[in-house]
Amino acid sequence: MAQPLESVWLIAAAAFLASASARAADLHVTPNGHSFGSGTQDQPYDLVTALSGSVGKPGDTFWLHEGFYPIGKLETKIHGAPNQPITFRQVPGERAQVVGSLNLWDSIGYVIFRDFELYSGQVGRVSKQVGVGFNPADLPDFTSGIQVYAPNFSFINLVVHDTVRSAFYTSAEATNTLIYGCLVYNVGWISPDNAEGHSFYLQGAGEISDCIAFNAAGVNFHLYANSEGGWLRNLTVDGNVAFGAGTLQQVRPSRDWVIGVDKPSVSADNIVLKNNMGFATSDPVTLAQVQIGRENANGTIVLSSNYWPEGVVLNNWSNATVSGNVIAPQNSDPTVDLRQNLTKMTGQWSGNYYSSSSRQERFRAGSTECSFADWKKNTGFDSASCCNAGQLSGTKVFVRSNRYEKGRANIVVYNWDRLAKVAVDVRSVVDVGAAYEVRNAQDSLSPPVLSGTYDNQPLVLPMTGLTVAKPMADLRTPPPTGPTFNVFVLLPRTTK
Fold first, then answer.
1. Tens digit of pLDDT for each residue in 418-428?
2. What confidence tens digit (pLDDT) does each residue in 17-76 have?
3. What is the pLDDT of residues 261-292, one digit of tens each?
4. What angle do CA 245, 250, 251 make, to 5 degrees?
5. Residue 327: which of 291, 355, 346 has the closest Cα?
6. So what's the pLDDT on residue 16?
7. What is the dotted CATH code of the domain comprising 26-283?
8. What percentage of the chain's residues is helix, strand, coil (to nearest 5)?
9. Rounded distance, CA 319 to CA 227, Å?
């Protein structure tokens, strides 16, 4: 029997109202907000309440307004839902500074954090203790900036700096993690006989892309496990930049890139590094080689289209695809150092460009050093690759557009001829007539080095006279890397 037309309209109206009530909301957060607020601009929440999960619902966005947000060591189980993430986002044109650390656990995730700044606020990052390893007891809030022990969290275009331990830590449980477009620097602690604190200490599966990491007490990209039965697998590392590992201290040598596992962990597998860039500073505390693999036997590694003016050491991979890379140490390190004492390597090496800073080509397979010709003969690799002797020259520029913000890009400049200025084509990123600004990544919170309205002409960027952000602690400030190398962030210029 057909329903009366009036009943049909009532059912439709009820469905519409239910849908409207479930729509995502824009909620507001301010430094002087309240736990009892409604999330409107007139009655904003405080950030601790917003992060507690007690307010809001899947799909909502919490907008962080200008100011300081002290959160201490905050732990939360907050979660959204599939296709309905909860988002915490800085209001465009404002600066939200979150002071403390964020621990995410016991959650299904589906939460996005983007665009704001986070730092510890702790100036006491120098321990006086000796012989205590990695656990000094005299440092306050001895924790990482963002710790993730649950899946499905995303971190986009954050600025994370001056954390006591690592800026980011993800456990093996933190699968499907996305870390994208983040700027990380000045992290870690020191003692008279040790130092640690990595820009990214990652163990969970996921993606880290288009991040800039520099000037850490420890490693910049530390993809590593050493727990009982642990694995490191299913990680994609794409378009990142690393330099200045260890340069906040002069105690313990460190590397920009460490990927692998040590006992009692089991293995690393299905690791992809592509389009990444590095730079070996002249600081002796930084070990220049990119380290791919540690002491255990590993599965599959892909190295594709990376630009590393550093040597590469590979340890114990059963299968390696190595293609389209520039591997060109500017010191006396071997170009490639292949160590396969635990497993035999198969795979494809092709289309790579190698360079040695000296007139003598240096490759190493096991304990044997050899020329490039003998390398190809002994390994069967690199038949379609080439190798030249001598220092790199000219200018090489990378412009990496940001997938989450129109008009934004990371600009990486290798200025081997040490020019005072370099012209950069950004036509693929910025629309004609758009307002823009360019910031020096090594001191990104200082005024822009260039700003204006885009007129379809190259941006002429300074390679000298740039500054470096000082740590918020009694740690060393490294010298600038210019004019040989600089990194910039191109941003759309916004006003309040």
1. 999 999 999 99
2. 344 446 899 999 999 999 998 999 999 999 999 999 999 999 999 999 999 999 999 999
3. 999 999 999 999 999 999 999 999 999 999 99
4. 100
5. 355
6. 42
7. 2.160.20.10
8. 5, 45, 50
9. 24
Give Cα separations from 115 to 22, 159, 181, 470, 494 (angstroms).
Answer: 26, 7, 9, 22, 13
CB-neighbour burial class of residue 323 (10 A; exposed 0-12, middle 13-18, buried 19+): buried
CATH 2.160.20.10 spans which residues of the chain?
26-283
Residue tagged 């390994």 (tokens): 379
Token pair listed for 28 = 């507001």
CA distances from 161 to 151, 167, 198, 355, 369 (A): 23, 7, 11, 34, 41
Three-state DSSP state, 47: helix
pLDDT tens digits for range 427-452 = 999 999 999 999 999 999 999 999 99
Helix (H, G, I), strand (E, B) or coil at 9: helix
If we measure between CA atoms, which residue out of 236, 186, 189, 238 comes closest to residue 213? 186
The pair of structure tokens assigned to 30 is 């301010």
Choose among 107, 111, 184: nearest CA to 144.
Answer: 184
List Cβ neighbours of 1 (8 Å cut-off, separation of 6 or more). Answer: none
At 227, which amino acid appears? S
Answer yes or no: CATH 2.60.40 is held by domain 395-492: yes
- Residue pair 158/114 in contact (Cβ under 8 Å)? The answer is yes
State how far the Cα of 57 lies from the Cα of 130, in Å rounded to an integer.
48
Task: Please name the amino acid found at residue 282.
Answer: S
- Please tell me the pTM assigned to this model: 0.94
Query: Residue 445's closest CA among 489, 495, 400?
Result: 489
Q: Strands 368-370 and 363-365: what pairing? A: antiparallel
State how far the Cα of 352 lies from the Cα of 336, in Å rounded to an integer: 11
Whether residue 117 has pLDDT greater than 70: yes
Q: What is the mean pLDDT of the chain?
A: 94
* Cα angle for residues 156, 157, 159 (degrees, 5° grid): 120
N residues, the chain: 496
From the list 351, 350, 374, 353, the residue with the least C-alpha distance to 364 is: 374
Is cis: bond before 483, omega within 30 of 0? yes
Q: Whole-angstrom distance between the N-terminal and C-terminal Cα of the chain? A: 59
Q: Enumerate the CATH 2.60.40 domain ranges in the chain, comma separated.
A: 395-492
